[in-house]
Design goal:
Number of domains: 2
Shape: globular
CATH topology of the largest domain: Metallo-beta-lactamase, Chain A
Structural class: alpha/beta
CATH class of the largest domain: Alpha Beta
Largest sheet: 6 strands, mixed
Order of helices and strands: EEEEHEHHEHHEEEEHEHEEHEEH
Oligomer: single chain
Strand order of the largest sheet: 2-3-4-5-6-7
Helix content: 25-40%
Length: 316
Amino acid sequence: MDTAIELPLTDPEPLPPGIVRVPVAFVNAYLVDINPGIPADGWVLVDTGLRGLGLLAIQRAAARRYGAASSPRAIVLTHGHFDHAGSAAILASLWGAPVYAHPLEQPYLTGRSDYPPPDPTVGGALAMLSRAFPHGTIDLGGRFQPLPADTPLPFLPGWQAVHTPGHTPGHVSMWRDAGGVLLAGDALATMNQESWMDTITMPRELRWPPAPLTTDWVAARHSVGKLAELRPGCIAAGHGLPMVGSDVSSALASFAAHFTAPSHGRYVDQPVVADLGGVVALPPPVPDPTAVTIRSATLAAAVATFAVRVARTRRR
């Protein structure tokens, strides 16, 4: 397993001025002031949460901070998974806003390719749930715009998108040098998604990216190392509570130095091959004993239900 770095903090929301976390069930979106602390100067939305739920939560948070009639200058997606891009199309249409993502995410955001299927065999709470996760595509049409990576963003001064592949081919993290602010997306997490209890209590700790949906573990490790070199003082991820403090950068450096992939899983030894057109090649499926058990239990329940119905019919 990966080496977790826990940082106990008492402040429930220790984000710098001008950044608002919007929790959407188990995932986070972020409102970012164009000029920190001056909402009237406009804003950018980073990620959109789950379909429907994200729409409601983000509209409510944006209205509180920027006014009910406000709209963002842009929407930025760290990647196109269903929990980060689920409300992107409807919000973009509602606001008339462009949606920026890395060019390697374009196939999954314009209807050209599905993502690889989740890998529940890595184990843990999230992996168990991932059997029900969608891995299809959405179609943003002409609202999709390629995001310039590793260069300053023209629509969000002081920020840049750092290409951090591994979780997905075109995953990006958002970085602001002033204050050392990192919006990490799913390049890493600040909670343990393998634990059922921790998904409820959410103690802050640095953990690997959501394991069942990470398709290149070598790239994921390199990306965490790339983020550690930035020496952030604030880490706000797609999953978990923000971490802020003088010890954050050293904790991330230690986490990066000891980062290891899961001990087993479909994508652990052989990554997905993808290009600008989408998925090119998938590793073969691996045995999933839990799925066999679930199917067997489901079949047994169905047989029992059928037998009860037959018995009731005969009594009539």
